[in-house]
């Protein structure tokens, strides 16, 4: 074990919270993690972790080591990138977390092209709607749609993601097409329970005047993809992110309603830890996201 391996292992154990989680993050065995920690403690002649059968915790010496080692490891990685520059290709594994609908339907089809461009990079994609702890889970990059309110993270906006009012042609032929916001109250609407607005849908007219319409609904669902599918099956009017319904609008299976009005608009963000240095591999992926989704 060299010093860098030991340093990486200590940092991984601190951030992941256990030897097992650190082993998963580093791609090595738990036994090897334990061995590296023991060797580091022996070299430094201090105990870095207090161990019990249930948990581990940092000693004061371990906390000081982590606080000093983290920026050193970042500076070493930056030095490597700076010296190698464009002479070598970005390499390593990028662990990415993305929302389910966006990850499955929109991000995943773009990944083969990225991998073809950067043959020395590997991707580990975590598709989930749950919030993740980037440090504990070893996540390099989080893709999020919506607000970012964690001051420990840096959020780089890739694109705007407006919500659009949509319904199927068959539903509109049977129930009529709303011409103004208040007409929505006479229609069956599909509620996405992910949004705090519930059945009070906000709309902004071309002059910038805002109003909320109380809509009637017989179905609530916590998936934007499900909202669009119900709408396509003539189940009512849905309020869905543009990226979800874009193809359906193009092929005619959905029709946008009240196009002169705006509703909620969320941002598509690439999020990474608030650290001084961002690795080349992650920078390359963020730039790729901007290329593929930045003008949508």
Structural notes for this entry:
Strands 3, 4, 5, 6, 7, 10, 11, 12 and 13 form a nine-stranded mixed beta sheet that branches. β8 and β9 (210-214) form a beta hairpin. The chain folds into three domains: 3-85, Winged helix-like DNA-binding domain superfamily/Winged helix DNA-binding domain (Arc Repressor Mutant, subunit A, Orthogonal Bundle), CATH 1.10.10; 88-160 and 267-293, D-Maltodextrin-Binding Protein, domain 2; 162-264, Periplasmic binding protein-like II (D-Maltodextrin-Binding Protein, domain 2), CATH 3.40.190.10. It has 296 residues and is an alpha/beta fold. The two termini are 48 Å apart. It contains eleven helices and 13 strands. The mean pLDDT is 88.
Topology:
Layout: H1 3-16, H2 19-26, H3 30-44, E1 49-51, E2 56-58, H4 60-84, E3 92-98, H5 100-107, H6 111-117, E4 121-127, H7 134-137, E5 141-145, E6 153-167, H8 169-175, E7 188-192, E8 200-204, E9 210-214, E10 216-221, H9 224-232, E11 237-241, H10 242-251, E12 255-256, E13 265-273, H11 280-293
Parallel strand pairs: 3-4, 3-5, 7-10, 7-11
Antiparallel strand pairs: 1-2, 5-13, 6-11, 6-12, 6-13, 8-9
Domain HTH lysR-type: 1-59
Protein name: LysR substrate-binding domain-containing protein
Keywords: DNA-binding, Transcription, Transcription regulation
Number of strands: 13
H-E order:
HHHEEHEHHEHEEHEEEEHEHEEH
Rg computed from alpha carbons, rounded to a whole number of angstroms: 24 Å
Report the CATH C-level class of the largest domain.
Answer: Alpha Beta
Distance, first to last CA: 48 Å
Query: How many helical stretches?
Result: 11
Q: How much beta, percentage-wise?
A: 25-35%
Q: In terms of per-residue confidence, which ranges show pLDDT below 50 for 5 or more consecutive residues?
A: none
Any idea what the CATH architecture of the largest domain is? 3-Layer(aba) Sandwich
| Number of domain units | 3
Largest sheet: 9 strands, mixed
Q: In terms of structural class, how would the helical and strand content be classed?
A: alpha/beta
Structural shape: elongated
The CATH topology label of the largest domain is: D-Maltodextrin-Binding Protein, domain 2
Mean pLDDT: 88
Note the quaternary state here: single chain
**By CATH's scheme, which homologous superfamily of the largest domain applies?**
Periplasmic binding protein-like II
């Amino acid at each position: 074990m060299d010093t860098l391996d030991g340093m990486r292992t200590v940092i991984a154990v601190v951030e992941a919270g256990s030897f097992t989680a650190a082993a998963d993050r580093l791609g090595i065995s738990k036994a090897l993690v334990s061995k590296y920690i023991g060797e580091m403690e022996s070299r430094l002649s201090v105990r870095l972790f207090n161990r019990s059968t249930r948990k581990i915790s940092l000693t004061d010496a371990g906390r000081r080591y982590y606080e000093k080692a983290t920026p050193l490891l970042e500076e070493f990685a930056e030095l490597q990138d700076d010296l190698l520059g464009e002479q070598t290709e970005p390499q390593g594994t990028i662990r990415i977390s993305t929302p389910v609908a966006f990850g499955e339907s929109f991000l995943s089809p773009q990944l083969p092209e990225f991998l073809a461009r950067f043959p020395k990079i590997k991707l580990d994609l975590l598709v989930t709607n749950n919030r993740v702890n980037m440090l504990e889970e070893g996540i390099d990059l989080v893709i999020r749609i919506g607000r970012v309110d964690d001051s420990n993270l840096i959020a780089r906006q890739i694109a705007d993601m407006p919500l659009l009012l949509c319904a199927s042609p068959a539903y509109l032929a049977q129930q009529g097409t709303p011409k103004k916001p208040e007409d929505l109250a006479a229609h069956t609407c599909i509620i996405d329970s992910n949004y705090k607005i519930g059945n009070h849908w906000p709309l902004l007219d071309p002059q910038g005047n805002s109003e909320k319409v109380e809509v009637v609904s017989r179905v609530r669902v916590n998936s934007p993809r499900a909202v669009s599918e119900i709408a396509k099956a003539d189940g009512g009017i849905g309020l869905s992110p543009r990226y979800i319904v874009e193809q359906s609008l193009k092929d005619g299976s959905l029709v946008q309603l009240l196009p002169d009005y705006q509703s909620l608009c969320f941002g598509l963000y690439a999020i990474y830890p608030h650290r001084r240095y961002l690795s080349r591999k992650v920078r390359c992926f963020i730039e790729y996201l901007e290329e593929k989704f930045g003008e949508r």
